Amino acid sequence: MEDEKKITWSNCEFKIGAVSIDDIPPTGLPEIAFAGRSNVGKSSLINALTGRNSLVRTSRTPGCTKQLNFFELNEKIYMVDMPGYGYAKQSKKTIAGWDRLIQDYLTGRPNLKRIFLLIDSRHGYKPTDLKIMDLLDDKAVSYQIVFTKADKKTSDFKKVSANFAKFALKHPAMHPEYLLTSSHKKEGVEELREAIAEFL
Ligand SMILES: Nc1nc2c(ncn2[C@@H]2O[C@H](COP(=O)(O)OP(=O)(O)OP(=O)(O)O)[C@@H](O)[C@H]2O)c(=O)[nH]1
Ligand SMILES: [Mg+2]
User: Over the stretch 91-129, which tens digit does the pLDDT of each residue have?
Assistant: First the structure.
């Protein structure tokens, strides 16, 4: 890999926590973001990528990440951990606020290069995931599916993966290939790192 595309993954710093779109300053750097339902493993995946188990707080209880958290990687690229959508152990008002923030951010950030849309490999796509995909397709925001918790995947995943190419064809902003990861077993993490390094 060329030198400018080399990333020291442990060199990652928390920079900004945003609860409203107005809290996010322009950074001048490319950005990638991790989106997905609550509990799908977004924060855990950032820890796995950086090899730093306590960089980001994770929890078994859905609704752990409560703001847009910006992490600067090697002073070259920002990674954004998002609150989950769909379900969380929070009030309706809080969830509606997060959904607004998520939508505003996903569709209004010019330097956002790609969204990694995480789907739990045990559960497949849920209606809330399909809604986000429609939104991103509609706004032509590039996204790639990352199936998570590969260590727990069920036989249903075979069907999902077999049908993936056809599924992707129906989604114009979706990357044609998916990634399969396990943060616990560190599977697929290297492939995801390579995908991120492309944006340098
Ligand atoms: N088996 C397994 N569990 C995982 C994996 N990744 C995350 N988890 C577990 O899933 C739960 C949720 O993980 P988080 O990383 O906090 O999920 P999140 O998507 O950030 O959740 P919110 O912040 O609530 O939206 C935790 O109990 C993790 O330990 C994985 O690769 N395998
Ligand atoms: Mg989280």
Answer: 888 888 888 999 999 999 999 999 999 999 999 999 999
Ligand 1 midpoint to CA 56 (Å)? 11
Retrieve residue 194's tokens. Answer: 């390579």
Is 0.70 surpassed by the pTM of this model? yes
Q: Whose CA is nearest to atom 14 of ligand 1?
A: 41
Rounded Cα–Cα distance for residues 172 and 175 (Å): 8
Which among 197, 190, 176 has a CA at the least distance from the CA of 49?
190
Q: Whose C-alpha lies nearest to ligand 1, atom 9?
A: 41
Q: DSSP assignment, residue 186? A: T
153 CA → ligand 1 middle, Å? 14
Residues with CB under 6 Å of ligand 1 are 36, 38-44, 58-60, 62-65, 83-84, 88, 148-149, 151-152, 182-184
